[in-house]
Design a protein that fits this description.
The protein has 468 residues and is α+β, with helices and mostly antiparallel strands. The chain has 2 domains: 297 residues, Pnp Oxidase, Chain A; 115 residues, UbiD C-terminal domain-like (3-Layer(aba) Sandwich), CATH 3.40.1670. The protein is 22% helix and 25% strand. The protein contains 11 helices and 24 strands. Strands 5, 6, 7, 8, 9, 10, 11, 14 and 17 form a 9-stranded antiparallel sheet that branches. The longest helix is centred in the C-terminal third of the chain and has 14 residues. It binds manganese (II) ion (MN). The site of manganese (II) ion has 3 residues, from loops.
Length: 468
């Protein structure tokens, strides 16, 4: 385990306060598209990029820019925390164990340069794309902030919203905390719950906003943003709601959720890349204000499919929480990864274990995680490349004896996004499914020389492209 001082030394950069500064600081990994792009092509183009992409010329929305793919791989995730890739996971894990830094409340900020109220607060003016052909409306993927009326803590999540009209949306609240907080407002006799849709903040905000775990009685995700960024976060009051929002955001849409009545919406796109669940009953939001920057505000999209931020982003804090739990058992954890290509249903542990017996505990700990993303857990050794599906598959094929290195558990909580899980009658959209843990590490019960890989002479040193 690293000493806290070592962790602090690894945070060698002060993070940028705003997304536009962040994209500038990290220009070396940002793909800038200056050619005109139609909004219907943005999703398909974004999803071909592995690194942050910025569209500067959107045919239908000339006043806006749009960015996506901010945190798809470890290189860009590490930039989000201002550390080297090798320090990324342990830094996030360490910072999540720290107390909340809270906010710095300020009177105004760049997000107030343009203020649209009443009928002018029309969010169909924003560059909101359709994500798949089955989307019934443009799909907003903002960071949503709601305030717990009992504690005052700021809970945030990234549930998508169908922009079904100029001032109307249907919010796909998938997180349990959103439902708990809505219930609190309802129990207080309120008809509406204030909500802010925040578009265009540094990616660390979004990593934290996707936290899921025990926290509601001690902080909200927003109070932890400054903690994981290791810097102050400024918040400004909303125009029409009793809520504060990030002063440096590009765009904020204010709204109020109707606490009574739901509307059926079909065919959402899950992180498993299927149209599951096939329908949801969603609460309606009425837009009350839009505030934004004056100079070509950057809309933040999260293209939902195929392999985009949609798979890793909601699971980055899960990786850090698992890092802490596995380290606590006594494993040396090199990496924990919900791979983008794993349909948000599988997890890779890259570990070394002190002696026999540890591996099954590590697999069970991960399989028994609070979230529904650990149906298949694969443990590999440090010499397996977790960024390469072929290398992970090779480890499964060569380092796992299915008769002794696989654990299968029946009848556990399944993901509503998993078509193989059995739908539970009377509990839509919940399902049950089994889980599998696969130990594909090099085995201490064998001669270590058996697991040495054979490579060509000068492998990794000479590149074919240099000879073309
Ligand atoms: Mn929460």
């Amino acid at each position: 385990m690293n000493a806290p001082s070592a962790i602090r030394r690894s945070s060698n950069r002060v993070l940028d306060a705003s997304l536009r500064e962040y994209l500038q600081t990290n220009a070396d990994i940002v793909t800038r598209i200056t050619k005109p792009v139609r909004i219907d092509d943005i999703g398909a183009l974004s999803a071909q990029s592995d690194q942050p992409i910025l569209f500067e010329n959107i045919v239908e929305k000339p006043g806006f820019r749009l960015t996506d793919i901010l945190v798809k791989n470890r290189r860009s995730q590490a930039r989000a925390l201002g550390v080297e890739p090798k320090d990324y996971l342990k830094t996030l894990a360490y910072r999540l164990r720290q107390p909340p830094r809270g906010f710095k409340n300020v009177k105004s900020g760049p997000v107030k340069e343009v203020i649209k109220l009443g009928a002018d607060a029309d969010w169909t003016q924003l560059p909101i794309p359709f994500h798949t052909d089955k989307d019934g409306a443009p799909y907003v993927t903002a960071m949503n902030i709601i305030k717990d009326p009992e504690t005052g803590f700021y809970n945030s999540c990234h549930a998508g919203t169908h922009a079904v009209g100029p001032r109307r949306g249907l919010v796909s609240f998938v997180t349990p905390h959103s439902h708990v907080i809505m219930r609190k407002y309802r129990d207080m006799g309120a008809e509406y719950m204030p909500i802010a849709f925040v578009m265009g903040v540094p990616p660390a905000y979004e990593i934290m906003a996707n936290f899921s775990g025990l926290h509601m009685d001690s902080w909200g995700e927003m109070e932890m943003v400054g903690t994981i960024m290791d810097r102050d976060v400024e918040m400004v009051p909303c125009e029409t709601l009793d809520l504060t929002v990030p002063a440096e955001a590009e765009i904020v849409v204010e709204g109020r959720i109707k606490l009574n009545g739901r509307t059926r919406v079909g065919e959402v796109t899950s992180p498993s890349m299927y149209h599951l669940p096939h329908f949801e009953e969603l609460p309606e939001v009425e837009i009350t204000a839009i505030t934004m920057r004056g100079d070509r505000p950057i809309y933040r999209n999260h293209q939902t499919t195929p392999a985009t931020d949609h798979q890793p982003l909601p699971r980055l804090c899960h990786e850090a929480v698992l890092y802490n739990r596995l380290t606590e058992i006594g494993l040396n954890v090199k990496d924990v990864r919900f791979p983008t290509w794993g349909a948000a249903l599988s997890c890779i542990l890259q570990v070394t274990v002190p002696r026999e017996g540890f591996m099954n505990d590590a697999l069970m700990t991960t399989m028994g995680a609070p979230w529904l993303n650990t149906k298949i857990v694969v443990a590999v050794s440090p010499d397996t490349d977790v960024d390469d599906p072929a290398d992970v598959y090779h480890a499964i094929a060569t380092r796992c004896d299915p008769s002794r290195d696989v654990i299968i558990v029946n009848n556990t909580r399944g993901s509503p996004y998993d078509p193989s899980a059995k739908p539970l009658e009377g509990h839509y959209p919940w399902r049950v499914v089994g889980k599998m843990g696969i130990d594909a590490t090099a085995k201490s019960r064998h001669d270590p020389a058996d697991f040495e890989r054979a490579w060509p002479r000068n492998w990794g040193k000479v590149k074919l492209e240099d000879y073309l």
